Amino acid sequence: MIEIKNLTKYYGKNAAVRNITFSVLDNEILGFLGPNGAGKSTTMNIVTGYLPSTAGNVLIDGIDIAQEPSKAKRMIGYLPEIPPVYVDMKVKEYLLFCAGIKGIKRSERKAQVENAMDKLKVKDVENRLIRNLSKGYRQRVGFAQAILGDPKYLILDEPTVGLDPNQVIEVRNLIRSLKKDHTIILSSHILAEIQAVCERVVIISHGEVRAIDTIKNLEDSLGGALILLMKITGKKSDVTECIRNIDGVVNIIDASMEDEGVYTYKIEIKDDGVRKDIMTALVKNDFEIDEVSTEKPNLEEVFVKLTAQPPRKKGLKDLLDEYDDEAEASDEQNDGSKEDK
User: Fold this and answer.
1) Residue 223 and residue 134: Cα distance in Å, rounded?
2) 34 within 8 A of 189, measured Cβ to Cβ
3) Cβ-count burial of 337 within 10 angstroms (0-12 exposed, 13-18 middle, 19+ buried)?
4) Any bridge partners for residue 153, and if so which?
5) Mind giving me the DSSP string for 214-262?
6) Torsion 126-129-133-136 (CA) sign
7) What angle in degrees, to the nearest 10, is found between the helix axes of 91-101 and 135-147?
8) How wide is the angle at C-alpha 139 spanned by C-alphas 137 and 145, nearest 5°?
9) Is the pTM of this model over 0.85?
10) Is 78 helix (H, G, I), strand (E, B) or coil?
11) Residue 174 and residue 24: Cα distance in Å, rounded?
12) How many Cβ atoms sit within 10 Å of the Cβ of residue 229?
């Protein structure tokens, strides 16, 4: 398990991440979701030991990566947003080099590299210089180095950037298949990416965690009424009266005519159970129901709502900086008063 506790990182006076706390369970694909500049890459760089934190801890199977970095890093495979490839090396040469750096036994390196190239479908370019590869191929070569050594944990930062649609599907399928033997953190700002492969998500904005839950629970958390769309044949005034008299109908938002005597109703209801009551009442009154669908809150709405909020709290450093600024302003004001006198 990966445990991240009160993780904080400052660049000067600016907080990139602030008091981030969450954990990643074994054999889980956790989505780390946030807009550009939210602090995702900074967090991933700290989790993998690439950057030191200002405060907080990262535990990899109980090992603090700041205290025992070599031991913790052996369990991690990392694909940063910009793949760490040496462009003057050939693909296979580079992967063998990475296998050596990772401490893979010499007798196992060739097999590990062949397996990684097969999984990422870069075998056909193994003898080409990396500088001559497309961005998509470079991304896949970077992914291949991440899985060398069969690490228990994979940290993937925007793994499908630069890939074409077919390659994106292949990589998503690969990530899902890796879940059997690996625990994965997938960092992205692409909602479809997270929804396609992740079970739980952490939403981050302004360097702060805004939510940690399953996608379904987050979608349900918006609460409020549901929107029911129904295409109904019948006299508009009679249909409207029938629907309004049903308990649980909050509002008839719209009733637009599709054809002569056919209307599409947009109905706000308290919960999904009201749909059955509406349909029963309409059939009982001999109205014909042509189509029925329900609009529910989705991850996009949750994401927009949570990330639109301003930073929620200030850290100790912010408060101390404000105190220093106020004290400095006060001193300047007192000095000015003395000069006036």
Assistant:
1) 45
2) yes
3) exposed
4) 76, 183
5) EHHHHHHHT-S-EEEEEEEES-HHHHHHHHHTSTTEEEEEEEEEEETTE
6) positive
7) 30
8) 105
9) no
10) strand
11) 19
12) 15
Please give the order of strands across the beta sheet that includes 226-233. 249-259, 262-269, 226-233, 288-295
Backbone phi, then psi, for 160, in 5-degree steps? Answer: -105, 10
**Secondary structure element (H or E) that encloses residue 289, with its range:** strand 288-295
Please tell me the distance from the alpha carbon of residue 34 to that of residue 15, in angstroms, as a whole number.
16
Residue written as token pair 């009679």: 238
The DSSP output letter for 90 is B
Domains and CATH numbers, the chain: 2-221 (3.40.50.300), 226-295 (3.30.70.1340)
Length of the chain: 341
AA identity, residue 2: I
Q: Tell me the sheet residues that pair with 11.
A: 14
| Digitized pLDDT (tens) for each residue of the chain, 341 residues in all | 999 999 999 998 888 999 999 999 989 999 998 888 888 889 999 999 989 999 999 999 999 999 999 899 999 999 988 888 999 999 999 999 999 999 899 999 999 999 999 988 899 999 999 999 988 888 889 999 999 988 999 999 888 877 788 888 888 888 888 888 899 999 888 888 888 889 899 999 889 999 898 888 887 776 656 788 899 999 999 999 999 999 989 888 888 888 888 999 988 888 778 889 999 999 999 999 999 887 766 777 777 777 777 776 554 455 445 445 555 655 555 555 555 55
How far apart are the C-alpha atoms of 180 and 157, rounded to whole Å?
A: 20
Long-range contacts of 62-65 (CB under 8 A, 24+ apart): none
